[in-house]
Design a protein that fits this description.
By secondary structure, the chain is α/β, with parallel strands linked by helices. The chain has helices at 13-20, 40-44, 59-62, 83-88, 101-117, 119-127, 159-170, 193-199, 219-222, 242-250, 272-275, 290-308, and strands at residues 4-7, 24-27, 48-51, 70-73, 92-94, 151-155, 174-178, 189-190, 202-205, 229-233, 254-259, 279-281. Strands 8-7-6-9-10-11-12 form a seven-stranded parallel beta sheet, with helices on both faces. Strand 4, helix 4 (83-88) and strand 5 form a beta-alpha-beta unit. It is elongated, with a radius of gyration of 22 Å. The relative contact order is 0.15. Bound molecules: glyoxylic acid. Residues 53, 75-77, 100, 286-287 line the site of glyoxylic acid (GLV). Glyoxylic acid is lined by residues 53, 75-77, 100, 286-287.
Length: 325
């Protein structure tokens, strides 16, 4: 009897077919979730899990998953998974790097332009019937912020941060960065986080969520940002303090914010952020293009098939699990 792989969200048929050559598949139905108590033996019987960022895999969940040998997440971020809990049990974790930087940077730059030039706000204004003959055009109508000639501060210079830097250079921005790894990239000036926040007209967040980056952009740091700056976050919600962003928008410290990710997703309807006209929001769609999602599915399947064959995953987050092999 082949090993069972639990797939938490349906992948395109060709990817399921590739997996099915190596394992028995148990694909969850819409409405079922990995953490459902009702999943019982289906969860404890699985040898591998192919999941997404909406599946929390923590110690409690892992308790009854005694057969589990690998997890392959269709995501680059793995903050939904307790990596050390997997590693101590020798369970390999795969992710999907190298295929979503451009799509995510496009989303970040779209949010930047929309926040700077009040595009979403203008769209709502017209649809709400507020654009009338009496306010058709005036020199002070719907003024935004210049993008060209301004400074973009990038927090986190990994592949998405670097893709953002390339876009910003094309728009005539000066690009600065602070990155926990200390990485340097030609054309991007390295600054301390303090200097970056104090001097950037736009700040875009591109670090992974980890213990060291949780609440990195907190109230105290937002208070040091250049007055009238714009904050963009396409990384993870927990990195930015949302109530501090709302307060900084209210007191004018921030001109606007563009957010793809939230502390809680979906963002609660009563979030203060949603009440603010200068906040542009999209529902965690950073990598959501058809071709990027196919590439992510491909990486996830390549990882899972390697694990099913007893080989190391090519995109492995905790390669230390192979040290003993
Ligand atoms: C998306 O947010 C990802 O981590 O892939």
């Amino acid at each position: 009897m082949p090993n069972t792989v639990l797939v938490t969200q349906p992948l395109p048929d060709q990817y399921l077919a590739r997996l099915a050559e190596h394992a028995e598949l148990d694909v969850l139905d819409a409405g079922e979730s990995l953490s459902d108590p009702a999943l019982g033996t289906r969860r404890s019987a699985c040898y591998g899990v192919v999941c997404t960022l909406t599946d929390t895999i923590d110690r409690a969940l892992l308790k009854d998953m005694n057969m589990l040998k690998f997890v392959s997440s269709v995501s680059v971020g793995v903050d939904h998974i307790d990596v050390s809990a997997l590693s101590v049990r020798g369970i390999a974790l795969g992710n999907t790097p190298g295929v979503l930087a451009d799509a995510t940077a496009d989303t970040a730059f779209a949010l930047l332009l929309s926040a700077a030039r009040r595009i979403a706000e203008g769209d709502r204004y017209i649809r709400d019937g507020k654009w009338t003959a009496s306010n058709r055009w005036s020199p002070g109508f719907f003024l935004g912020k210049d993008v060209s000639g301004s400074t973009l501060g990038i927090v986190g210079l990994g592949p998405v941060g670097q893709a953002m830097a390339r876009r910003a250079a094309g728009f005539g921005m000066t690009v600065a960065s602070w990155t926990p790894s200390g990485r340097k990239v030609p054309g991007v000036c390295s600054l301390s986080l303090e200097a970056l926040l104090a001097t950037s007209d736009f700040v875009s967040v591109h670090v992974a969520l980890a213990d060291t980056t949780r609440n990195l952009i907190n109230g105290a740091r937002i208070a040091t940002m250049k007055p009238g700056a714009v904050l963009i976050n396409t990384a993870r919600g927990g990195i930015v303090d949302e109530s501090a962003v709302a307060a900084a928008l209210d007191d004018g410290r921030l001109f606007a914010a563009g957010l793809d990710v939230f502390e809680e997703e979906p963002v609660p309807a009563d979030s203060l952020l949603l009440k603010h006209p200068r906040v542009v929001v999209v529902p965690h769609i950073g990598s959501a293009t058809a071709s990027t999602r196919l590439k992510m599915a491909d990486r996830a399947v390549v990882n899972a098939v390697a694990a099913l064959r007893g080989e190391p995953m090519p995109y492995c987050v905790n390669p230390e699990v192979y040290a003993a092999l």
